[in-house]
Automatic annotation (TrEMBL):
<protein>
    <recommendedName>
        <fullName>Transposase</fullName>
    </recommendedName>
</protein>
<feature type="coiled-coil region">
    <location>
        <begin position="28"/>
        <end position="55"/>
    </location>
</feature>
<keyword id="KW-0175">Coiled coil</keyword>
Amino acid sequence: MRKYEADGWDALKDGRGRSKGVEELTAEEKLKLEMRRIEKENERLRAENLFLKKLEEIERRRN
């Protein structure tokens, strides 16, 4: 709890070990990394769309 309050979400990530740099990745690993990035972006956009739809519905009800 103290870590989160002091440094936020990033403080809770496990930073042990070494991850490869982009130049060390194979073509397959680069593709998987790009797919993961696109999936996260899609998830964020879906959540944003749901939020905007709810907001629009609330505004319609007020008028």
